[in-house]
Records
---
Amino acid sequence: MKKMKLLILVSLLGIFCLGFTTDKEHRPNEILGYYWSPKKDAKIQIYLKGREYFGRFVWLEKPRKDIKNPNKALQSKDVLGLELLTEFTYNDGTYGGGKIYDPESGKTYSCKMTLENTWLKVRGYIGISLFGRTEFFERIKYVPL
């Protein structure tokens, strides 16, 4: 009888603790939503396509064409709607394996992201993460239609 009570108590304690976990591994879609660019001159939407995370421009302070794109056929395209974050996968609190495109330079970099409260920490780099730059995108709490 004591073993049965102990088993029930341990089971209830385990269920109770699961409800209060802070492990982000259980909430990979928490990244989904809208963010200000670091200069607050653009809004970026992070969304899920299949099992990968992407980000695109949904608002620009100054609409412009992608004139720095190395692909001449894409230089006449609008930056608005452009995917700047592509093919990220979630693993243990980090969104990695993706790329970030910088329309200001026309260059694409390897990238990883982490979510820190209301900030999306985005690190673009060449080769290894040590050689790169980190930018912070602030989550937008309300996006008017």
Note: The longest strand covers residues 107-116.
---
Amino acid sequence: MMVLMPVTAYLSSMGHGFDVAPFDWFTLPRFLFHDESLGDAAKSMHLWGRWIVYSLIVLHLAGVSYHLAFRRDRLIERMLPHQNSQDSPE
């Protein structure tokens, strides 16, 4: 999804005849001519991809909530970097 979303956005813009200028730093080259059908297909894929990304984020947050609230297995603490504490007994 991290690759599909920018590619479909680029193809949609190019297909509809718009330039793509990330942060107005430079303009990406046009590899395609003005092609409305390609632009429409890419836009449709991009819009469906948006909902897939939203769903993945919600599922990820649900998993985090499950481990924090229900399992209480300290999984989140094991994923974070270890903190060397001055107060811990040795």
Note: The chain has one domain: 4-79.
---
Amino acid sequence: MAYASQLGFDVEKDPPELLIIAEKYLNKDIPDYFSRAFHKDNLQIFYINILTNEIELSSEYEDLAKKEYKELKEKYNKDMKSKEMLTNNKAIVILRKKWPL
């Protein structure tokens, strides 16, 4: 949940299908010379380059995760609006005349 929040997810409102994206990217393998760490105070995941001892706040996967989340959230919201229109019976049927051929 902390990683999902770090990526910009709305962890309280997003459906589980979207939160799975954060789990998917969190479980991706990182290069052998990196170590993943978790900062307890600010609930943020970061990466330590074992060769240089440098700390990086994001990985190459985070941009991919954010992009996938944005695309799926837009699709989810669109699908929800379509379902809402169907359940509220807001659709209007217009009958057309048959034109002579």
Note: The chain is about 45% helix and 15% strand.
---
Amino acid sequence: MIARVQRLLVLALLMLATGFLVTRWQAGQPMWALLGAVAILGGHSVFLAIEMVWLVAARGNDPTPKASMRTLVAAWAHECLAMPQVFYWRQPWRHRLHADHLPADAAGRRGVLLVHGFVCNRGVWNGWMPRLRAQGVPYLAVTMEPVLGSIDRHVAAIEAAVQRLEQTTGLAPLLVAHSMGGLSVRRWLAEQPPSRVHGVVTLGSPHQGTALAALAFSINGRQVRRDSPWLQTLAAREAQSRERELTGVYAGFTCLYGDCDNVVFPPRTATLPGADNRLVAGAAHVALVDRAEAWQAVQQRLTA
């Protein structure tokens, strides 16, 4: 469903930009025609700039080293390029480009489950899937719906994918999640023995909520508000497990977070107590998926 919606939005933007370009050009205003078309197609950059300003304003007493203005501007520029790549191309048109990889001889090889975030689908991982296949790593990339429904409803999709990886490889998989996907994984894992996962790597996940969710209108958006009842209930579920009390609730987690994350902020909200929390300097939210540090963290977990 999310792919169809994003295709319609892309086509609507292209039609609007083309219509403005043609009408202004015919009116003898070629400069305004070009500027207007670019503004329509690049309008997301304005919203990203507002998020960056909010990120700076909402820091409070966050202990993460403060990013310089130059770093913030560079992160904003990279995010302006990353957003259309993901939301205008990979997810609407190319989310089925790479099939899941569960070869017949996968037994004994560690599998990876890729879990997307809010208003995304498996296409966000298009840069990862061919690299995992080239390494001979079995993987599954899920698309979870409903898009705006409760995070609790993602549990079934994750459970089904984990079962397939377990049956194919005979091993507990490594789970890699971006953004809200990290909360989906935690919600699933809260009702499972820790032995069912080899580890969890989260990229910019709002583990402690995000200030940006104050504007959220969807069910899952409200669930990731700072100190939301849903987050408190999730933490209580995780703490109930005796096995987790002995080993550390988040001992198997690696949490990557950015000092320029325009969606999950203040920065430390993307960390967990007792986890391997790693700062990725200069990383905005969507761009974090394709950062070398994210790939390296997964490689370290696979070989651990």
Note: DSSP finds eleven helices and six strands in the chain.
